[in-house]
Design goal:
heterodimer; A: alpha+beta; six-stranded antiparallel sheet; B: alpha+beta
Chain lengths: 341, 158
């Protein structure tokens, strides 16, 4: 046996897709409504991370408008709320952060959007130049009755799970992007948005989510239900429980091996082992495996698999991440297979 | 699905030995250099540290049970552990291991014209991780390495 360096193993994480939406103009009625909400928010006092010293590290996969307003209040954001009458449960919050006017739009608790308008003349080439460089924002150039509008936007997907810290960072990051973008627009040379390079390590404060050991079927079923997954369950006397379900158009199987480890897999057509080895070399967290047919009439097949060792205990969020990250791998593998014979 | 490898009693013993107090563990999503090194020290592992080409990437080389192992830390977001074999294995051999494996995979690499097999495992920390999980990740791989060596030696490989 020989041990050596494993070069070429540096791989990148995929970016979450954003979800731009449109908004409508605010009315006086909306402003009055917002003022009332603001008064309630301010009367509620500091957030849970305030004087009591209790840090709320809960992960929200759906945010109510009240929870968002509570967060904004705890960040010291004075806001004005308006309702979007063309879409249900969509609200706009206008406020200033570091002197920059911005609008936060709440989309039915599932995602948030920040935008800021810049009164500057620029060209589509410059907008494109920014978009090519920026990581946390995108710019657009539009025209309306008042003339041309330069808008910077940033989106946050809530469904994947956010904490109060995530929302605060979302706002602070956008404020920094706005400053950089303003400098970029005012200069003829390229300013410096947050570059698309590997970010420096971020130290996330520890949280105290409940750790499960062993993993019960109830735990798994709760996680699957929270993912809005309808599953078919099969329990074997050997202590293995299997859940078959569809997620994002893919058929997946999650197996619980006595609460000590989880395995998730998806089945594909037969592919030659050289192509599978190449895939394994290039990817992380998964294993592409060629299987021979079992039983009469069976056919050879390929499985994409991933295992989660639960012997040291795992949280709901780890299980959830294990499943949702695997779906992205399945999609990637499916695309890879389309290039293979 | 095909039958899976059943874990041996030795691994189970290790699991129990490192079983955490599930009631009070900090969950974090970024494994710091300090955390990795503290856990390696707690496991009594003497390592040699080196840095990757990019900032935030660190390698820890050490020997366990006679096998040379490398632990990688990629910006605290994912951990990677591997051991390399120069034995004359084929892609089919790697696949036969992968059919039975749970907590590792074997891949055939071509390093400057020379075939090398990497037995490896990765852990995605973005969903959260604890000290106990990092410890388990390292200790579990010891068992995978031992089993893979046996796989090569016995009828598993040619």
């Amino acid at each position: 046996m020989a041990a050596g360096l494993s070069g070429g193993h540096e791989r990148t994480h995929s970016e979450t897709a954003s979800n731009p939406r449109r908004k409508v103009t605010m009315t006086v009625r909306n402003m009055l409504c917002g003022a009332a909400v603001l008064a309630i928010v301010l009367a509620a006092g500091p957030g849970r991370a305030g004087a009591q010293g209790f840090v709320d590290d809960r992960v929200y996969r759906y945010l109510t408008a009240e929870q968002l307003e509570d967060m904004l209040a705890s960040y010291g954001v004075g806001l004005r709320k308006s309702e979007n009458f063309t879409q249900r449960n969509v609200y706009d919050y206008d406020f200033k952060r570091d002197g920059i006017a911005m609008r936060l739009t709440y989309y039915d608790g599932k995602d948030l959007a920040l935008e800021s308008v810049f009164a500057r003349n620029t060209t589509l080439d410059r907008i494109n130049e920014w978009n090519a460089m920026a990581k946390f924002s995108r710019a657009s150039l539009g025209r309306d009755a008042a003339g041309s509008r330069v808008v910077l936007r940033h989106n946050l997907d809530v469904i994947g799970g956010v904490t109060r810290g995530t929302v605060r960072q979302f706002i602070n990051q956008f404020a920094a992007e706005c400053k950089n973008f303003d400098r970029f627009l005012s200069s003829t040379t390229v300013a410096s948005p947050e570059p698309k390079t590997t970010p420096p390590p971020v130290t996330t404060p520890p949280s105290d989510q409940k750790i499960h050991l062993p993993i019960t079927d109830n735990t798994l079923e709760r996680v699957l239900s929270n993912l809005n997954v309808q599953f078919r369950k099969q329990a074997a006397p050997s202590g293995i429980t299997v859940y078959d379900f569809d997620l994002e158009g893919f058929k997946l199987r999650l197996s619980n091996y006595g609460g000590k480890d989880l395995m998730i897999d998806a089945i594909f057509r037969k592919v030659n082992v050289t192509a599978l080895n190449k895939y394994n070399v290039d990817r992380k967290f998964i294993r592409a495996v060629a299987y021979k047919a079992t039983g009469a009439g069976g056919t050879d097949y390929t499985a994409l698999e991933s295992n989660l060792d639960c012997a040291a205990g795992v949280t709901d969020e780890m299980i959830r991440h294990f499943i949702t990250a695997f779906v992205q791998d399945v999609r990637h593998f499916s695309n890879y297979l389309s290039t293979q014979q | 699905m095909c039958p899976r490898k059943v874990l041996g009693p030795v691994v189970l013993g290790l699991v129990l030995a490192f079983a955490p107090d599930a009631s009070a563990q900090a969950v974090y999503k970024n494994v710091s250099v300090q955390t990795v090194e503290r856990i390696l020290n707690e496991l009594g592992i003497q390592y040699k540290k080196s840095n990757g080409n990019k900032e935030g990437i660190h390698f820890y080389d050490y020997t366990r049970n006679g096998f040379k192992i490398r632990l990688h830390n990629y910006n605290g977001q994912d951990l990677w552990i591997d051991a390399l074999w120069s034995d004359p294995l084929t892609i089919e051999d790697c696949n036969r291991w992968n059919v039975r494996a749970k907590f590792s995979r074997a891949v055939l690499l071509n390093n400057n014209g020379k075939n090398v097999v990497s037995l490896e495992n990765q852990f995605d920390c973005l969903g959260g991780v604890t000290d106990a999980i990092v410890r388990q990740f390292i200790v579990r791989f010891d068992g995978e390495v031992r089993d893979f060596a046996e796989f090569i030696r016995s009828s598993g490989a040619r």
